[in-house]
Amino acid sequence: MLSQGLCKPEVAESTDHYIGFETDLQDLEMKYLLQKTDRRIEVHAIFISNDMRLNSWFDPSWRKRMLLTLKSNKYKSSLVHMILGLSLQICLTKNSTLEPVLAVYVNPFGGSHSESWFMPVSENSFPDWERTKLDLPLQCYNWSLTLGNKWKTFFETVHIYLRSRIKSSGPNGNESIYYEPLEFIDPSRNLGYMKINNIQVFGYSMHFDPEAIRDLILQLDYPYTQGSQDSALLQLLEIRDRVNKLSPPGQRRLDLFSCLLRHRLKLSTSEVVRIQSALQAFNAKLPNTVDYDTTKLCS
C-alpha cells in the first residue's frame, strides 16, 4: 500500500472476528487459578473409557486408556478451545507398591487418534507432573500438570494412557528401582488396586466463526472487488501463522492450521492442499517475509 508516497507492506486487518486467541487473564492470575484448580477455568469435557470407570477400583496391572473430549462440531461449533492444565485424583489401596505412569496425547481440532501429538512431559523444560498428597484415609494424590500461557495449545480431545510400575528399594536401600508389573511376579508383593476419582481439563474457549473463514477462502477464487483477494490471503496468512504459533514444542512446528481446515471447516484434503499452496505462493511475493516448514499432523 502507498503511505506518504512510499510503498509499504500491507498489514492484515484484525482476524479476531474469525477466531479468538487470547484470554483476559494475566499470567499471575492464571497461575493462581490453576494452583487452586479453580472451576472457573475448567473446560467441561465428556469422559470416555472402555477400560475403567471413575470412582471405581480396578486392577492396574494392564494399561488403561481414557479420554476427555468436547465434541465441538456437534455441541460447540462456534468455539475453539485452549488447554492450560490437567488434573487427576488417583488413589491406591493401603501399602500398595504400585506407581502410576501417565502418557498424554492431545488432539487439537478433532479427527482420529493418529492426529494427536504426544505431550513431552518433563522433557526439554516442558512442565512435569506435580503430586500432592491428599488428606484422605487412602493413598490419594492429586496429579496436576500446569501448562499456563507459555505452553498452552489448542485441544479438542485429550487421550490419557495409565500404566503402572512397581516401586522397590535398590540393593543399597538408598535408591528406588522400578519394575513393570509383568516383569516382577512375586506373590508376596501387594500390587493392590487403583481408582481415579476425577479428571479435569483447565483452559478456556474462544470465539470461532467457520462460515466467515469459508467466505475468506471463497474469495481466493471469486474475489468481491479488485484487491479483495489479496486482503483475504493476508488474513488467512495471519490466521495460519497465529494458529501454528501455538504448536507444541519441537524442532519444527506442527501444521495445526491444516487440522483446523480439515476438521472444523470440514474441507477435503485436496482443498486444504490447494489453500496451503495459494498461501505459500502469496507469501513468497511479500517483501521481507520468511516462511517456515511445518510437520504434518492431520491427514
Automatic annotation (TrEMBL):
InterPro entries: BRINP, BRINP_C. Pfam families: BRINP_C (PF19052). GO terms for cellular component: cytoplasm; dendrite; neuronal cell body. GO terms for biological process: cellular response to retinoic acid; negative regulation of mitotic cell cycle; nervous system development; positive regulation of neuron differentiation. Residues 2-299 form the BRINP C-terminal domain. This is BMP/retinoic acid-inducible neural-specific protein 3.
